[in-house]
From TrEMBL:
Primary residence: membrane
Name of this chain's protein: TonB-dependent siderophore receptor
Organism: Chimaeribacter coloradensis
Origin: domain of life: Bacteria
Sequence motif TonB C-terminal box, residues: 730-747
Keyword Transport: yes
Length: 747
């Protein structure tokens, strides 16, 4: 800005000087009258110079307070933040901690028109997305290990967010922590998240008032609208309120699939001198009718080619109806200049009802059999944490100490009816058939389901970050005493299994910063947590202990890496090894049993690079290489085989280019490449590698009032048909070509 104003002043001076020169020439020819005009011109020039105000633009100083609830400042254009929440250690910059973490902001969510969490996590090569067991829930695989939506935290608390499908309309940040997080966050209630975790930060009112209305369209005929309203008020704007409302419905690009979302959230906060507090509440109601389901491998000798990208091999009477009410209360108080006590309490109630029907392949030609399972499901979750954090010095050593307690309780209720596999079809030529009504199996009371499981996780943690040499050397040392109690119940409500375990697990991390912009790090983390819960059916057969937790497991992680941040470009490189007991389905007569029948050891390399190396050109790229190997399987049957649903490599490159000569116009693109992966423990069924290309354009009209931003994007431009994932041992097909349009107006 300073340079621009100087150029403007110089141009004005040149023009006035020419005018003065012209006046002098005329004076020589025309006499005293024109000489007076030249003098007036010179006086005008001098007055303009005296009145000129020189303004120098500079970025405002960051008020980020490490370890608190303050969000890490966004990087450059505001789409990515180089850091995020590390559980009870609070928000931290990535360069200062021995963990791999990155955050995606609400600006990126808007610019990429990200409707669900899967759309956001597609930006990182460490994450694979798939569907859940026979339903339409989103499931994620981080560093080769599953992360269910039940185990995604909200403001650092588990058990608060809606499950199955997580919308993004209430998200200010999506923070991705790669690597084991049980020490930092406490034990996730669903037993997943060993390879990494995701935290969503709620939206808050900023200093500037916001009234934003958005309209969007997604092919084939989804239309939606949303409102984002924020204000601060009171003395020194200490009180804030933010309201988000959304509704979207219509047919997707998959033939005959319909989706609907209605939701709202309210965020209230108070920012005092010593006390900060917030209250977040929300409700979501989502439905999927006639959705395209996953495909079980069944009796095949090879993976069949994926059908046409838009083909829907599901049945139109299949659906899921999801509703969640959730809330979270947080507060922190500075008891002294360097000491703060904090606490949070949250919970949610989920009620779901669905009729599910996933095809099981009968042969390599794509013929399938399908049954119908009807399931009412309810879950109640309560979680909380409290603690104290502070800093002090002992000689040349600075300490940042945190002592905390966390607790998460989950109760689930469900029942089911299951028909025999009487629906016959083909994934290439689907046949619409009427819903089968005769139940072959059933469990529980469909009108009033009994309790199926109760899980309570509680833990005490202490950590100390020791820093010397002006924080160029930092050592994090911590312990967590974790207690897990699991109660499983049969469909009749009678207790059928009990697991109780307490263990103290360590965490160590080291950060070395030999130069200002470079840091080396290493960590070792061990975690105790409840195992995953199996599906009620698998490959068309009943699971004897479906819906119940498969015991208690202990996982371990070792990681080393290097990070750089040069202000315009940031990069990181990590090498890691994670071991975890593996939950598997084992065939037993006419049913499957689900349990921890092996161990998986994943070794990998991660490379991340993002920033704006040239003005107007923004890049975000990542690469993950994995060696996922099964060990300690029952009787050594699968020892040395590759883990199911984990590709050997995955890379993502995305970018933006501000088109020269077209003010406010930006071209966008993303290229995703995923390597082959196995769909069975014996490694006889292999999915081929696949590639997806997304392209788009954005036009920011840059109006001083009522600014309007237009966005258009096409995902899977070439309409590739491919199996996107084999996670869980079943096939999830990639989405077809999809057009997204949106308009956002700020009032």
């Amino acid at each position: 800005m300073h340079a621009t104003i100087k150029k403007t002043m110089l141009s004005s001076q040149i023009v006035l000087a020419l005018a003065a020169a012209a006046g002098a020439a005329n004076a020589a020819e025309q006499g005293a009258a024109t000489t007076q005009q030249a003098q007036q011109a010179q006086q005008t020039q001098q007055a303009q110079q005296d009145d000129t105000l020189v303004v120098t633009a500079s970025a405002p100083e960051s008020t980020f307070n490490a370890g608190s609830n303050d969000l890490v400042p966004a990087y450059l254009d505001g789409q990515i933040a180089n850091g995020g929440r590390l559980g009870f250690l609070g928000e931290q910059k990535a360069e200062n901690v021995p963990f791999s973490i990155v955050s995606y902001t609400s600006k990126l969510l808007q610019d990429q028109q990200a409707h669900t969490l899967s759309d956001v996590l597609d930006n990182d090569a460490s994450v694979e997305s798939s569907y859940g067991y026979g339903n339409f829930s989103e499931n994620y695989v981080i560093r080769g290990f599953s992360l269910a939506t039940d185990d995604i935290s909200y403001g650092g608390l588990y058990g608060v967010l809606p499950r199955q499908i997580v919308s993004t309309f209430f998200a200010e940040r999506v923070e991705l922590l790669k690597g084991s997080s049980a020490f930092l966050n406490g034990v996730p209630p669903g037993g997943t998240g060993v390879g990494g975790n995701v935290n969503i930060e709620p939206k808050r009112a900023d200093a500037s008032p916001l009234t934003r209305v958005s309209l969007d369209y997604t092919s084939a005929s989804q239309v939606g609208g949303s409102l984002d309203l924020a204000r601060r008020f009171g003395e020194d704007d200490r009180f804030g309120a933010r309201v988000n409302l959304i509704h979207r419905e219509g047919e997707t690009a998959v033939d005959g699939e319909k989706r609907r979302l209605t939701g709202g959230s309210l965020g209230l906060d108070y920012r005092g001198d010593r006390f900060r507090g917030s209250l977040d509440m929300g409700v979501t109601h989502q439905t999927v009718h006639g959705g395209r389901p996953v495909v079980y491998t069944g009796s095949i000798t090879r993976i069949p080619d994926a059908p046409s990208a838009t083909t829907n091999y599901g049945q139109q009477w299949a659906y899921t109806d999801l509703e969640t009410e959730f809330g979270m209360l947080k507060g922190e108080y500075d008891v002294a200049d360097n000491w703060t006590i904090y606490g949070a309490l949250g919970g949610s109630h989920n009620h779901e009802y669905g009729k599910y029907s996933s095809p099981t392949l009968a042969n390599d030609a794509g013929d399938t059999t399908m049954s119908r399972m009807t399931v009412p499901y309810f879950s109640d979750n309560v979680s909380g944490n409290t603690g104290i954090r502070g800093t002090f010095d002992t000689g040349a050593v600075s300490h940042s100490v945190n002592i905390g307690y966390s607790n998460a309780y989950t109760k689930t209720r469900s029942a089911y009816t299951l028909t025999s596999a009487t629906v016959r079809s083909n994934i290439y030529a689907p046949v619409a058939q009427s819903e089968p009504l005769t139940n072959r199996f059933s469990g529980g009371d469909m009108g009033d389901p009994h309790v199926r499981s109760r899980t309570r996780n509680q833990g005490y943690a202490i950590s100390d970050t020791l820093s010397v040499l002006d924080e160029r050397v930092q050592l994090i040392a911590g312990l967590r005493r974790q207690s897990i109690a699991v109660r499983n119940y049969g469909y009749d409500g009678v207790e059928s299994g009990t697991f109780d375990e307490t263990k103290v697990t360590p965490a160590f991390g080291l950060v070395l910063k030999p130069w200002e912009n470079v840091s080396f790090y290493a960590n070792h983390i061990e975690a105790l947590q409840a195992g995953e819960s199996g599906a009620t059916t698998y490959n068309g057969l009943r699971v004897s202990n479906g819906g119940q937790t498969a015991g208690i497991i202990t996982s371990k992680q070792d990681e080393i890496g290097v990070k750089t941040d040069f202000g315009r470009v940031a990069a990181s490189l990590a090498l890691f090894e994670i071991t975890k007991p593996e939950s598997m389905y084992q065939l037993s007569g006419d049913h499957y049993d689900y349990g921890n029948y092996g161990e998986v050891r994943n070794r990998g390399l991660e490379l991340n690079l993002f920033g704006e190396p040239v003005y107007g050109v923004r890049l975000n790229g990542s690469l993950t290489l994995l060696d996922p190997k099964m060990t300690k399987t029952q009787d050594g049957t699968y020892d040395g085989k590759k883990a199911v649903g984990v590709p050997r490599y995955h890379w993502v490159v995305s970018g933006e280019y501000d088109l020269p000569g077209l003010a406010g116009v930006t071209a966008t693109g993303k290229l995703i490449r995923t390597g082959s992966q196995y769909a069975d423990e014996a490694n006889t069924l292999q999915l081929p590698a696949w590639t997806r290309l997304d392209l788009g354009v954005r036009y920011d009209m840059q109006r001083t009032e009522n600014n309007i931003v237009w966005r258009a994007g096409v995902e899977n431009v070439t309409n590739e048909h491919y199996w996107a994932s084999a996670a869980g041992g079943y096939l999830t097909q990639g989405d077809p070509r999809e057009l997204k349009l949106s308009m956002t107006v700020d009032f």
